[in-house]
Amino acid sequence: MTAFIILLALLGLLLAGVPVAFGLGGLGLILMWLADISPVMVAQALYSTADNFVLLAVPLFLLMSNVLLKGGVGRDLFNAVQSWVGHWPGGLAIATIISCGLFSAISGSSVATAATIGTVAVPEMIGRGYDKRFVLGLLAAGGTLGILIPPSIPMIVYGVITEESIVDLFLAGIGPGLMLVGLFILFSLGYARFGGGYTALDKADWDTRVRATVRALPTAILAFVVIGGIYAGIFTPTESAGVGFAVALIIVFALGTMNWEKLKEAVIDSMRTTVTIFLIIGGAKIFGKAITLYRIPQDISMAISTNIGEAGVFILIVCAVLLLMGCFLESMSMLLIMVPVLFPSLAALGIDPIWFGILFVIMIECALITPPVGLNLFVIQAVGKVSINDVLRGVWPFILMMFGSIVAIYFFPDIALYIPFKL
Predict the structure, then answer these.
(1) Three-state SS letters, the chain
(2) Predicted confidence band at 305 (pLDDT cuts at 50, 70, 90)?
(3) pLDDT single digits (tens) 222-258
(4) Backbone phi, then psi, for 223, in 5-degree steps?
(5) Helices 237-254 and 57-70, axial angle in degrees (round to 10)
(6) What is the pTM of this model?
(7) How far apart are CA 115 and CA 139, in angstroms?
(8) What is the pLDDT of residue 1?
(9) How many CB atoms lie within 10 A of CB 9?
(10) Is the peptide bond before 371 cis (omega within 30 degrees of 0)?
(11) Residues with Cβ within 8 Å of residue 393, at least 6 apart in sequence
């Protein structure tokens, strides 16, 4: 009963428009006060949130992705991919998805991926006669790859909360990320075959391909440095973020696409996002400590292990709850509220925490493109200068594909676990 009242109170605060960070932190503080617990724990929780070397990767990855965004790297990447596959059936759509996948490997952010590739791809595809709703849905969904294909900011936060290996989480995201890229490409081919109505590109000559590829090569090298360095054990995720940021700066200044004014904008944007994320993490830390002292996670874990004996039923319930929460909470809030509550139940049901983390991130991806607060919907709306209804009508097939990927990962766990544990 206590757990229900607390969750109802939290929901009431969020629906009343209280910022997530202050809703979580304020409610946690009230719960501690009601239990006559020293408020010193609040300061300790906030300090421990900031004093974490692993979380330093968050602002560094944000800096790297914003530098690349302001430096126009997305155009070079898109042009290079387009020169190779643009003449295929649905070639621009395929180029868009591949570009999203490649940029995801260096950004860690879905918003940066959607904005960077969308700025280039939306006018290009609509100008070539592609259905507007298809284009908008493709970009909104393609942007979500930014938090599944490593590096991924939500995976970093999940690893910090659960004390699981962030490197293993990164590697586990590769297989599902490539699977979603493949599904989106197959859908694009189907659209080209049965939807039609677009003007195909002429096949690029070798000189054009070489010039476009050389221009985009530094970005590909950056992705290799960031991911390859982590996989080879040369860098920790935090160190790779720092190296990636430095290399990104070199690339954009060498290409002549960055100036000090753009760099200032990138730093300010990164600072704002970082402060928002860290405030939510701090608030969630206070709330998490409070509900732990009230033994709510333990009680929920006991209730689950007593009443739910099948991992499949548990996953089904979790997916349904996350889908509902995604209608009024943004992705980081879902992660920070739900993981501390659900994580203690995994061991009793024999669920691998790395596998569960990937499943959780895919559900967060769905939240990014479901109304009314799906962030990628608004990013693509702004990029395409269209109504939100156009984006919503185009995105639903991709949501179904994400659900299909969850089913596939449930029945074939090695899609996520093969690379980190068997390769």
Answers:
(1) CHHHHHHHHHHHHHHCCCCHHHHHHHHHHHHHHHCCCCCHHHHHHHHHHHCCCHHHHHHHHHHHHHHHHHCCHHHHHHHHHHHHHCCCCCHHHHHHHHHHHHHHHHHCCHHHHHHHHHHHHHHHHHHCCCCHHHHHHHHHHHHHHHHCCCCCHHHHHHHHHHCCCHHHHHHHHHHHHHHHHHHHHHHHHHHHHHHCCCCCCCCCCHHHHHHHHHHHHHHHHHHHHHHHHHHCCCCCHHHHHHHHHHHHHHHHHHCCCCCHHHHHHHHHHHHHHHHHHHHHHHHHHHHHHHHHHCCHHHHHHHHHHHHCCCHHHHHHHHHHHHHHHCCCCCHHHHHHHHHHHHHHHHHHHCCCHHHHHHHHHHHHHHHHCCCCCCHHHHHHHHHHCCCHHHHHHHHHHHHHHHHHHHHHHHHCCHHHHHHHHHC
(2) low
(3) 888 888 888 888 888 889 999 999 999 999 998 888 9
(4) -60, -40
(5) 20
(6) 0.88
(7) 9
(8) 63
(9) 14
(10) no
(11) 133, 137
Token pair 């995976």 is found at 155
Identify the residue whose tokens are 């080209």. 192
**What does the pLDDT look like over 24-65, one tens digit per residue?**
888 888 888 888 877 777 777 777 767 777 788 889 998 998
User: Residue type at 343?
Assistant: F
Among 335, 376, 352, 310, CA closest to 172: 352
CA distance 210 to 256: 20
Q: How far apart are CA 99 and CA 251, in angstroms?
A: 18
The one-letter amino acid code at 274 reads T
Structure tokens at 289: 């400590």
Cα–Cα distance measured from residue 206 to residue 269, given in angstroms and rounded to the nearest whole number: 39
What type of residue is 183? L
The type of residue at 282 is G
